[in-house]
Amino acid sequence: MRVGVYFCNCGTNIAGKIDPKQVKARLGDMPDVDYFETCGFLCSEDGKRFLAEDIRSREPDRVVIAACSPRDHEANFMRVLESAGLNPYLFQMANIREQVAWVTSDPERALSKGVSAIRSAIARVRLHEPLEKQKLDIVPNVLVIGAGPAGLKAALTLAAADRRVVLVEKDPVIGGKPVRYEELFPAMECAPCMLEPLMGNVFHGELADRVELLTQTEVVEVTGYYGNFIVKLSQQPRHVDPVQCIGCGECVAVCPANAPNEFNCGMSDRKAIDFPFAGALPYAPYLDHQTCIRDRGDDCRLCKDACPLGPDIIDLDAGELVKERNVGAIIVATGSGLYDCSAMSNLGYGRLPDVYTSYEFERILSSTGPTGGELVTKEGKLPGSVAIIHCVGSLDEAYQPYCSGVCCQYAFKYDHLLRSRHPDIRITHLYRHLVLPGKDGTSLYREAVTSHAVDLIRYENISDISLCSCNSGNGGTIISTGQQDKLNADLVILCPAITAAPGADTLAEVLDVSRDRWGFFEELHGRLDAAQSKLKGVYLAGTCQAPMDIQQAMQQGMAAAGYVLAGLVPGRKLEIEPITAAVQTDRCGGCRVCIAVCPYKATGFDEESRKSAVNPVLCHGCGTCVAACPAGAMEGHHFTSAEITAELEAALG
Amino acid sequence: MIRHNVPADFEPKIIGFLCNWCSYAGADKAGTAQLAYPPNIHVVRVMCSGRVDPQFVLQAYHKGADGVLILACHPGDCHYKEGNYRTAQRNRLLRLLLGQFGIEEERCRFDYVSAGEGDRFARIVTDMVESLKRLGPLATNHNRKES
Q: Residue A472's pLDDT is what?
């Protein structure tokens, strides 16, 4: 074996402290060292050219470069090696700049430490094996789950880059939660108007032919991995052809069956065949089985007969459709849920008549909501006083200890809207903490605190607050805060914590991705890769990952699309880094410890052979399983036990 | 465990296992900040502290190390999510074993150094060298044969 050693002077950075001539002399006893070369700046263009030419002419079996940190130039030198015809993994750097020359005062000791580092690199590199990047074909198409702001943004960004997108939505309407709001903080922008261009583009814009929208659809099975997933989708029947339907509503008018409308939180009724709410897209009614009297044996076909476009628009006998799609990546944008306020009995939610959650109140404010946007109490009166209780379930160790981040801002939005619509109204905010980040975060708050109609009361603990109904017969609610005088409110709005969406557990299981301790989909890294799940090829956008506002959700939609566009390029193969773990099957005893410790689900168990196997596409090469294997059956490429042992032995020799 | 009188010129040998993303970068940071610390450490770079097999630690002692340093990303910052927790778990067991071998606790140090904490890295190495100088050489059979 012939090892070539290159010593980079790095100007005087290294050679000023460590004399290369003396280094060369102290390597003389190492039999495998074929030659020792010095260079002024090996990372310069001249240096790299010299390195490539020298390797080409001398044809060493292995190369050691004593220079700066491998974190600086290892990748560059590996490319040089590759261009010179040497496998880039037959190479080791000795970090004698950052970790020797720059940190050792005594030149004699710096020389010894430098020599030791180079000797260990030589000992290690002798054991290096040539490694190749595995190249796999990819499918550039993408599945986006959830057609709220984050999912729409991701889908349209991908479509704009010519990707085919399958956009699935479990509801019969797209636009997520915000499309059901009237106005948004901080600038009172009309939410449906803001989202309309995005939603419109999915249906009939220039990108529409690249986005396959499937409403009332859920993902039921996923097989394969990054670059090549097969997803099975289950679509419930709408019974109305959304493409041909003109949305005239004739079928709705004749339908005899009623049920509480879940899109208005049950505060109004809908027909069995109905629009979720006015303006909902796709602009076509949907038929709800559970409400339809046909499901109870009746042969009603009033809706079908009423359709002015003929008998082909409404299909009363349609059933579930199972579809299969082949995609390279999956973006989860399934949104979030809200803390169940009825769990705090002291707040009277569900018991007292005019206590609403923020989401219900958004619907009350909305012109497409149960009251058409009119603010009235259950008794039909305009409320003279409104109490807004912040931090319900948030910032509370007993419930959700995190801050949900958006509640304060929408609470002051309510404040603004209520006062502008009803100048005589009195508003009281009960809060635990006020959190108003961002450059626009405090604008509505500042407006509220300067108003004489607004009081802010800080409470210590939500359990100190109790709500009960007024006995005076005038309706309304009495609120005790535990410290202040009791106050009276005709209407109470609770701002519940943002929580994981109902059904996130099932989807996480189907996708095999992990969730954090609160049930949100868990990101790969909180700061570096918050839009990436721990499973390669599955990305996260919007509140499925953490509480956030619409701006952040949109940005995360873009970020998730960015990961896909950068990672899955049509015509380019997926390159798998060779620094992965691999099972030596003859040693594996099938204990599955490696499967338990892998954070990426890259290790699996082959039932037939009763042995573990590593999927190199999913493996990140951390080596945790290698250290954990009690049989020594797991090997970490490029960080083998033999290589590491050789290095430390030489360093101690 | 046989305690020697510590020779005045004793320079302990330390093997440091540093994860690529945080601690190794922290050690580099000490370099770019030109923070001098004793040269008694040889750094073995691993991708993740989770790769540090306790056998490496035992081998290091066996081959003449007086101390072993394992540095990881701070809790919650692991590039591989939880490799540092695995190392911390293993380290607790390893300490029990080392105690049974009569190897002092100070000879095996587990700590966290982030990519920005060059000063912390230099301080940890300096502290460890000082404490090992007080302890003296690790007298394993291997060492005794040589001395």
A: 63
